[in-house]
Amino acid sequence: MINVTKPYLPSKEEYTAYLDGIWERNWLTNYGPLVNELEEKLKKRLDVEYLQFLVNGTVPLQIAIKVLGITGEVITTPFSYVATTGAILWENCTPVFVDIEPKTFCIDADKIEAAITPQTSAILATHVYGFPCDVVKIEQIAKKHNLKVIYDGAHAFGVKINGKSIFQYGDISTCSFHATKLFHTVEGGAIICNNKELNDQIFLHKAFGHLGDDYKSIGINGKNSEFHAAMGLCNLPKVSGFIEQRKAIAETYRTELKNLEIEFPVIPSGLDYNYSYFPILFKSEEVLLKVKNHLAANEVNTRRYFYPSLNTLPYLEKRYACPVSEEVAVRVLCLPFYQQLTKEEILFICKLVTDAFK
Ligand SMILES: *Cc1c(COP(=O)(O)O)cnc(C)c1O
């Protein structure tokens, strides 16, 4: 069985070396030394000023909406994982979907202004597959209309735009360190900002809203543990190597599949890309299903990331038309993509895809 992703595991020895310290200290969670060490190393690696290591990549979205005081309408992308829309709804805000731009699959910044109403208070957009949103245009729009900007950077670990960390844009960025992501801590994630006051607010909100006996705000529990931090400390030094290996796998896929009627996303120029996913676009859903089913019959799992287009979720009150996103969502498939894939496995997958076309 070849899965769409395979979490990297360090050697047991590497991991247990950290466990020895945890047992000695008997300090399992609440800002332990491993959590602090991981946060410091992540700040350096990602080139950001403030970062907190949280339980996953979804709670940071909820906390971001809460601490920025966002209410009413939030302009968002229909092409993302459901957590992006889910966080908006969970915080009792209304998602307003703006269609995507067909090259990067990110929200189409040129269509944002038309969706702004007096109720709009923020933009929550995803750097989907690690491709950046038009951060410059979004910043201009946000300034002009006094909107907050949150980026769901769950896919964007380590991405840089013209040398600048993608996480330096927006009021708050989030990342996911889930087992299926490029860099993982089993479960985990981060919330990132570039302002001390906001970082302090986030700290309060992720820890029940109190400091000792001072109850300052509402809060939730978003803290992560020493055990998760230990996994992160094992994996972090290896991420640059993972990206190199994944780049090579992407090149093999592109070469082997180049004669088929398949579109590959173009990696924007000036981007330090992280090769977090390998999406391909078929001519039609029919072809996609044919390929997907043929691969599945041969024990190769692919994923329809991201389908359905989130503006079509059944539990939404209001319908928005997002023709580009809806059209991409039915034609896009993510192929197995992880650094441990062998050359034989990649060639086997490519042969199955090719055979399905015949
Ligand atoms: C994975 C993912 C999330 C959620 O992250 P978790 O760590 O699983 O909570 C949010 N947004 C996007 C775009 C994702 O891919």
How does this model look, in words?
- Helix content is 37%, strand content 15%.
- The chain is an alpha/beta fold and 358 residues long.
- The strands form 4 sheets. A 7-stranded mixed sheet has the order 1-9-8-5-4-2-3, sandwiched between helices. The protein has a 3-stranded antiparallel sheet with strand order 7-6-13, with no helix packed on it.
- The protein starts with 11 loop residues before the first helix and ends with a helix.
- Pyridoxal-5'-phosphate (PLP) binds next to α4.
Instruction: Give the overall form.
Output: globular
Please compute the radius of gyration using only Cα atoms.
21 Å
Low-pLDDT regions: none
Q: What is the helix/strand order?
A: HHEHEHEEHEEEEEHEEHHEEEHHEH
Structural class: alpha/beta
Main sheet summary: 7 strands, mixed
Mean pLDDT: 97
Distance between the termini: 23 Å
